[in-house]
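Curious: why these numbers?
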Amino acid sequence: MIGWTPGSPGGPGLDAAASSTPQCSRASCTEPASFNVNWRNPRIHGIERVKVWTACDTHVDYLRDYLSSRSFPVEVTPLGVTVDRVGSP
């Protein structure tokens, strides 16, 4: 789910019957996530807004590079590690 925020119901890769282990946010990937890809779109969100995608070992670089190529600030953390902000104002 694009733009999922920690604490929101129905996080990425989860359905009501699934376990609580998030799946990778990369399209068509069903691998368990190992990382949070924390990001924001500075053109529409303030520094306090952090969006989170989850990533498996295979797709973490792809997702980080995808967001960075659009000039979005990105910070990758281990799964479950949250950040208060991404990038400078």
Observations:
- The mean pLDDT is 85.
- Residues 1-8+20-89 form one domain.
- The chain has one helix and three strands.
